[in-house]
Amino acid sequence: MIPELGSFALILALCFALIQGTIRSELTVNAVFGQFTFLSFAMLCLIISFINNDMSVIYVREHSHHLLPFIYRVGAAWGGHEGSLLLWCLVLSAWTFAFIIFSDKKLSKTTFSTILMILGWMSAGFILFLLSTSNPFQRDFPLSPIIGNDLTPVLQDPGLIFHPPMLYSGYVGFAIAFAFAIAALLEGKFNKEWARALRPWIILPWSFLSFGIVLGSWWAYRELGWGGWWFWDPVENASLLPWLAATALLHSLIVSEKRSAFKGWTLLLAIITYALSLLGTFLVRSGVLVSVHAFANDPRRGLFLLGYIALIIGGALALYSIRIKKFFKPSQFQLFSRETFLLINSVILLTAVATITLGTLYPIVLEALNLEKISIGEPYFNTVFVPIMLPALLLMGLAPHVHWEKQSFLALWKKMGLALLLSLLLAFLLPWSLGYPFGFLTWMGISLGLWILLSTLQSLLKQKTGLNHWAMIVAHMGIAILVIGVSVNKSYSEERQVKMQPGESIMLAGYQFTFDSLDKTKGPNFESIKANFTVGNEPISAEQRIYPHDQTLGKTGIIFNGWRDLYLALGNSLPDGNWSIRIYYKPCVRWIWFGGFMLLIGGMISLLNHYQKRRGAL
Amino acid sequence: MKKYLPLGLFLLIVILLWRGLGLHPNLIPSPLINKPVPTSRSVFLGQVTLLNVFASWCEACAEEQGFLNQLAKNNKVRIIGFNYKDTPLKAKAWLKQYGNPYQNIMVDSKGETAIDWGIYGTPETFVIDKKGIIRYKVLGAISPDLWEETLGPLILKLESETL
Question: Which of A317, A373, A552, A576 is most worth mutating to test chain B (most B CB atoms within 10 A of its CB)?
Fold first, then answer.
């Protein structure tokens, strides 16, 4: 009964989405509310089916098991293809609902209703996709009782509860900015009110996406057992691409709002950002790419999604080509000005987008042309991404100190020269004083991080700091901390792979790891072999778990403080009674995630400012 | 013209992705194709062989087994089993339940020999010619269609080759 109610709710939600897409009236608001309610209800039905372990529902059967702990049964609702698409639809309708409640009242009524209509069509397309190719409530009554296929052990982690909803809130949220852009193109209107009304709808999803990516990185780090925090996996790239585009959009919009320039560019970026979100969804859902995240594929799904993307984004870009002339306006700024800096920033970010897209799609391209099968991995991405981003980081420290319209180079040098030299020097001295060897790229990375940190702090001294300024400071310092974390981590990590048995010890980076004992333990739905170690006086243990259906999963052990992680992974037992053990020393790895977290905080501060101003204006 | 650039680029990507949909990224050619079998070469000499990787914990193997039994019964080709990460006891019980098409079985309970063969899942099947050279590899279960279209003709051709 419950799955049928869920299916029924989906159909009702589709009807509401169609109403929202076709009727321009005050009543559309009710359609949005109805849609949100029924999609929430459908999600609830799916979760209840999981909690009850209703094995007649195919999707539940494939992702649950009677021993699966309660919390993961809830998370399993979006652990597979169908459920995660339902989450997509739900998040889109939640964003639309939020848009109705919180949207800027200065936005014109027509623009407002146009945006709602566009969102209605996008939602209808996705719900239709869900119902026609991926209904999570599809039933199949088995003749004999069945045990479920179980949720992949890798997903049985608290990360499953937070990472996908956070990431989707980011991805999908860009739909609002996209609808804004289409409305502007249709109406030929792009003014200050429009730009100001759009701003929170970029900042909020951008913050969520930033944090979603960080959560994913942290999860992969703990779960995969190789001490890495970013793998340039196609699906990771799929989340990084919209993030880069949205970062460019965020900065371009500031110029549009404050200086009424770059309007065409802002509109294009809004379309590209959402296009990349959709591309990401396509890459994950269609199975065109080999990836740790890939889901089972059904060719109809890929085709439907591709058609949908071609229609929505193709239509948007065609509209852009036709209407863009209206938005060109000779801008008045000199070569050396904040406008130029922000423009260069956009161009760099977009170049990064292009190179990552190329690397991600290149294997498909070659195959499509019947050339060969290749896979592109970390070496390519590290080689191309790092040099592209270095100048962006340099500019990031400068731009906040450059005036709009024009800036004298000499004055800028006088102001910022000290910070630049100081960061170059400190980046050399700090590793040296701690006894680390010198490396050119490391030095560059740490210098740039310190440079952003110092120059951002310097901007605190002179200017009156409003909330908006604080938002920038926190976000930029987050990037600085992230950059330093990445540089140190990449350069000074250490690892060893060894054969050991209880009683032995081994040194790594000045820490002594002692293998104390080996235990057999039992969890709610797994049996496990646990290797207990001590480092100094602290215990650390790693496990090999065996889940139902003989799936095995390693659980790493980690001891951390602000400066470094010590990381332990247990491998296989060897015929001679030894165990293969991997240990890692990972300096500053937490800085990467902390920096990412600061992006979220920065975004929240900016939002606070927006609503404070709005209340002040009313 | 410049303003049509984004649209043009986008359409290009869509076309490529559309072509990409018809492809199978998981079919990575084995580097061992046209190379001699990495282990137990003598077993394979003189007769065309299917080496079928199976395990009692593998559900797709159970589905494939029916078709393999038919092949064995009709003497289409010699089939040798490769028992992967399994225990002999479980494997025996499983063969009793689902049928045993294998003339001989290689046992690799720890999955070590499998590394030499480049095996990364079950079921997988190698086609090996009379000289003990790997000529083809199937990832996943063998379907009657695949047999009719590819494997059957290939094996006929290999049978006609002289040593």
Answer: A317
Q: Does A439 touch chain B (CB under 8 A)?
A: no
Q: Which residues of B touch A286 (CB under 8 A)?
A: 17, 21
Q: Is A292 on the interface with B (CB under 8 A)?
A: no
Q: How distant, in Å, are the alpha carbons of A329, A397, A406, B19 from that of A341? A: 19, 11, 11, 40
User: A209: closest CA among A182, A183, A177?
Assistant: A177
Q: Work out whether strand A494-500 and strand A505-508 pair parallel, antiparallel, or are unpaired.
A: unpaired
pTM: 0.83
Three-state secondary-structure class, residue A108: coil
Whether B156 and chain A come into contact, CB under 8 Å, resolves to no
Whether B163 has its CB under 8 Å from any CB of chain A: the answer is no
CA B89: distance to chain centroid?
Answer: 24
* Non-local CB neighbours of A54 within 8 Å, separated by 6+ positions: A2, A3, A60
Which positions 112-151 of B are in contact with A (Cβ < 8 Å)? Answer: none
**Token couple for A559:** 């001891």
Q: Is B102 left (phi over 0), alpha (psi -120 to 50) or beta?
A: beta
Can you give the length of chain B in residues?
Answer: 163
3-state secondary structure B4-42: HHHHHHHHHHHHHHHHHHCCCCCCCCCCCCCCECCCCHH
The two counts, helices (H) then strands (E), for chain A are 17, 9
- CA-CA-CA-CA torsion for A170, A171, A174, A178, nearest 10 degrees? 180
- Give A-chain residues touching B28 at CB under 8 angstroms: 373
Q: Which amino acid, B112?
A: E
Cα distance from B134 to chain A (closest Cα, Å)? 20
Residue contact A549–B57, C-beta within 8 A: yes
| Helix, coil or strand: residue A561 | coil
Give the pLDDT score at A24: 87
| ipTM above 0.90 for this complex | no
Cβ burial, residue A371 (10 Å; 0-12/13-18/19+):
exposed
**Cα separation values, A503 from A357, A512, A576, A601, B2, Å:** 49, 13, 15, 46, 70
Burial class (CB in 10 A: 0-12, 13-18, 19+), A249: buried
Out of B16, B21, B57, name the one closest to residue A299 (CB): B21
Flag whether residue B1 sits within 8 Å of chain A, measured between CB atoms. Answer: no
pLDDT in tens, A37-55: 999 999 999 999 999 988 8
Quick check: A321 and A195 in contact, CB under 8 A?
no
Q: What would the pLDDT profile of A196-223 be if each residue is shown by its tens digit?
A: 899 999 999 999 999 999 999 999 998 8
The shortest CB-CB distance from A321 to any of B7, B23, B26 is to B7
A287 at B interface, C-beta within 8 A: yes
Encoding tokens for residue A289?
């790419």
Is A361 close to B16, i.e. CB distance below 8 A?
yes
Residues of chain A with pLDDT under 50: 291-296
Read out DSSP for A293-330? T-----HHHHHHHHHHHHHHHHHHHHHHHHHGGGG---
Rounded distance between C-alpha atoms, residue B153 and residue B159, angstroms: 10
The packing angle between helices A109-133 and A2-22, to 10°, is 140
Three-state DSSP string of A409-475: HHHHHHHHHHHHHHHHHHHHHHHHHCCCCCCHHHHHHHHHHHHHHHHHHHHHHHCCCCHHHHHHHHH
Compare all CA atoms of chain A with the CA of B22 and give the residue at the minimum distance: A299
Angle of helix A263-286 relative to helix A81-102, nearest 10 degrees, comes to 150
Any CB–CB contact under 8 A between B16 and chain A? Answer: yes
